[in-house]
Design brief:
The complex is a heterodimer of chains A (199) and B (496). Chain A is α+β, with helices and mostly antiparallel strands and 199 residues long. Chain A contains eight helices and four strands; from the N terminus they run ααββββαααααα. Chain A has a four-stranded antiparallel sheet. Chain A is elongated, with a radius of gyration of 18 Å. Chain B has a domain of 221 residues: Four Helix Bundle (Hemerythrin (Met), subunit A) (Up-down Bundle). Helix content of chain B is 51%, strand content 7%. The radius of gyration of chain B is 29 Å and the shape is elongated. The relative contact order of chain B is 0.09. The chains are: A alpha+beta (199), B mainly alpha (496). Chains A and B meet through helix 1 of A and helix 7 of B. Bound molecules: zinc ion (6 copies). Chain A: Pfam families: UQ_con (PF00179). Chain A: InterPro entries: UBA, UBA-like_sf, UBC, UBCD4_UBA, UBQ-conjugating_AS, UBQ-conjugating_enzyme/RWD.
């Protein structure tokens, strides 16, 4: 079993490296160890999304029963998305669960994740706070996602007014990431974020 | 079917003197003395809980299911394996499937995941078969090593086998699908078994598939008793009480012998399934608040000595000062007159609307606790009465050994204990019902009947616990009264 997993991963690794997506710098995989049980993936934020210009790093763990079971994938780069936990990076995507098929490959997974960044599914959320904002305050969601892309994924859009609010909280001794989470969760309402942080 | 069922019940009654220790409360017939023998046909009118059902062994159910499989496979000229896929997908509605087949066979096969959604993507399969490369294990194989489902997606046999093993080890059997991306065609039983080699895997696959078939069959249900292999079959559309003939004979755990066909929660008349679900969720949510009630000890209200509840009866007598009091409200037992047992009744505060939100919340909690406390208490009493029954058995054993009567002479005590359990079981399930009832005359009537039932049950419980000094006629009279109260309440309020 483990033999098939290693064979498959080696082959897929080559497949991804040779693929046209790599040529376009859209996806990437790297080996973490020699045993092919763990890999590092990378996907570029798709154009015309708040993630555009960002680079998102993924942790890929290959189970012994691969490819009969799906790889375990999570975001290492912090991201603001309804189907991805803003805390753990855990992903809610059907092909990583019951819709996985043994004939799928790492390339399919990476491309599916990229597609997920383009089209979220707020009705099947992983992060309830983000999903709610996505549905109720779409513009606020876009701004927040863009801001997170800038801070954590090297995105291009600097947003001084949001940075300003975060600074107000860090000045009060709040750790920067915690301040960002609180503000993002409360639609950048400084008063409510403060209240939550100090309650 | 009705006659058959009735015969079975009679068999149990006849065997009363055979194995007294395991007589079940459900087979006690308190009406037998009334000369009411013409009951064959109006059993359901007389007993609101009456249900027609069979208790079947696995082999019997297999035979039953196979009849349907054979019949469908003959009428549609398909393999028994495909017939199983169709029956499972359509909850064993044989006639429905045949009708759908006549209207549009191909859409029936597509919807049942026997055939793939068009357009057919068989190119990739052919390609891999011709090139000899299995895309799952990425190994080159000879052509006869490949296998494919109706979708044409071709993979090597070793990979299919491994796929099945991984799925089966995750408990999946009838739901195993093709290994290709976006293909939902299911692997039928004959395909799986032709490729699965390990005997233990084949066995597990067949066990899981059988479970799936039973679960998808609206008339079948596994007995929820621990380690019990029996399967119930009933055509009842409504929640009814059924009792497993197998675990009844081997243990005295009663709660799981009774279950309703609708929801899988323990049998819960007179409360309906939805109310029951709401109630259990509420109990789980509020468990912390309610925890303090579940303590097994209370102080005697008179002399304040700590006493532990040791039997199911709520009529407590302090071993120190001999004060008689009610376990639930700690009030004087004598005040709980036989006519109207006030303790079971929760009085709604009529001024509630005028009070603050906080007070309302407090009032809501108080109301919930009132019902919960009684619900919990009767559930505990049920468990304690099991111990009481054990104690009775030992007592009788001792008596019989000392030549003070035979087992038959003491038989009535078991009948009484069984009936007590049946009554208390129903009483326990009246509390969720009452909790969700709108205030009004109907609720008042319900709580009046509930109070009467409760009073008779406590009386019966007391008489059983003090059986040595209770006269047999007295006890049997009390049994009769309690059961009548129970049936009256169910007749008036069982709306299933
Ligand atoms: Zn293969
Ligand atoms: Zn297929
Ligand atoms: Zn059973
Ligand atoms: Zn139910
Ligand atoms: Zn006392
Ligand atoms: Zn009381």
């Amino acid at each position: 079993m483990a033999n098939i997993a290693a064979l498959r991963i080696q082959r897929e690794f080559k497949e991804v490296i040779r693929s046209e997506e790599v040529a376009k710098c859209a996806i990437k995989v790297e080996l973490v160890n020699d045993s092919f049980t763990e890999l590092k993936g990378e996907i570029a934020g798709p154009p015309d999304t708040p993630y555009e210009g960002g680079n998102f790093v993924l942790e890929i763990k290959v189970p012994e029963t691969y490819p009969f079971n799906p790889p375990k994938v999570r975001f290492i780069t912090k991201i603001w998305h309804p189907n991805i936990s803003s805390v753990t990076g855990a992903i809610c995507l059907d092909i990583l669960k019951d819709q996985w098929a043994a004939a799928m490959t790492l390339r399919t997974v990476l491309l599916s994740l990229q597609a997920l960044l383009s089209a979220a599914e707020p009705d099947d959320p992983q992060d309830a706070v983000v999903a709610r904002q996505y549905k109720e305050h779409p513009e606020m969601f876009r701004q927040t996602a863009k801001h997170w892309t800038y801070v954590y994924a090297g995105g291009p859009a600097k947003m001084p007014d949001l940075d300003d609010k975060i600074r107000r909280l860090t000045d009060m001794g709040i750790e920067e990431h915690n301040a960002r989470v609180a503000l993002s969760s409360y639609n950048w309402d400084l008063e409510r974020a403060t209240e939550q942080l100090f309650s | 079917m009705t006659t058959e069922e009735y015969d079975t019940e009679m068999d149990y009654s006849d065997s009363d003197c055979g194995d007294p220790g395991y007589e079940d409360y459900y087979n006690v017939h308190p009406w037998d003395g009334e000369g009411d023998n013409d009951i064959d046909n109006d059993q359901s009118r007389r007993d609101p809980e009456y249900a027609v059902y069979d208790c079947l062994r696995i082999e019997e159910v297999e035979r039953l299911l196979n009849e349907d499989v054979e019949s469908l496979s003959n009428s549609l000229h398909i393999t028994p394996s495909l017939a199983k896929v169709l029956l499972h997908a359509h909850n064993w509605a044989l006639q429905d499937i045949i009708a759908k087949y006549r209207t549009n066979a191909s859409s029936l096969f597509i919807n049942s995941k026997i055939k793939p959604l068009p357009p057919l993507d068989s190119l990739s399969g052919l390609k891999s078969q011709r090139s000899g490369l299995c895309s799952v294990c990425v190994a080159i194989q000879s052509a006869e090593k490949f296998s494919t489902l109706t979708c044409g997606h071709s993979f090597c046999k070793d990979c299919w086998c491994m796929h099945f093993e991984v799925q089966i080890s995750q408990g999946i059997s009838t739901g195993i699908s093709c290994m290709a991306q976006d293909c939902n065609v299911l692997a039928p039983e004959d395909f799986v078994l032709s490729l699965l080699t390990k005997p233990n895997m084949r066995e597990r696959y067949q066990q899981f598939a059988f479970c799936d078939y039973v679960k998808s069959h609206p008339q079948l249900r596994f007995c929820p008793g621990p380690n019990c292999q029996m399967i119930m079959r009933s055509k009842e559309q409504r929640a009814k009480r059924v009792m497993c003939s197998s675990c009844k004979t081997c243990d005295l755990i009663r709660n799981c012998n009774n279950f309703s066909f609708r929801c899988g929660i323990d049998y819960h008349a007179p409360t309906d399934c939805n109310t029951m679900k709401k109630w259990l969720t509420k109990c789980a949510d509020d468990s912390e608040t309610a925890n303090y009630i579940s303590a097994h000890t209370k102080d005697c209200p008179k002399c304040h000595i700590c006493i532990e509840k040791n039997g199911g009866c709520n009529h407590m007598q302090c071993y120190n000062c001999k004060y008689d009091f009610c376990w639930m409200c700690l009030g004087d037992w004598k005040a709980h007159g036989s006519e109207y047992y006030v303790c079971s009744r929760y009085k709604e505060n009529p001024n509630i609307a005028h009070e603050s939100v906080l007070a309302q919340a407090r009032e809501a909690l108080k109301k919930y606790l009132h019902y919960y406390e009684r619900w919990e208490n009767h559930s505990k009493s049920l468990k304690l009465e099991e111990q009481t029954l054990e104690a009775i058995k030992m007592q009788i054993n001792k008596k019989v050994m000392n030549y003070s009567g035979t087992w038959i002479d003491w038989q009535h005590l078991f009948a009484a204990a069984s009936l007590l359990t049946r009554c208390r079981y129903t009483l326990q399930y009246t509390y969720p019902y009452a909790y969700y009832m709108e205030p009004g005359p109907r609720k008042e009537l319900f709580e009046y009947q509930q109070a009467q039932l409760e009073a008779e049950i406590e009386d019966l419980s007391w008489k059983i616990e003090h059986a040595e000094t209770t006269n047999r006629g007295d006890l049997e009279n009390q049994m009769d009264i309690a059961e009548k109260r129970r049936v009256t309440l169910l007749k008036d309020f069982l709306e299933v």
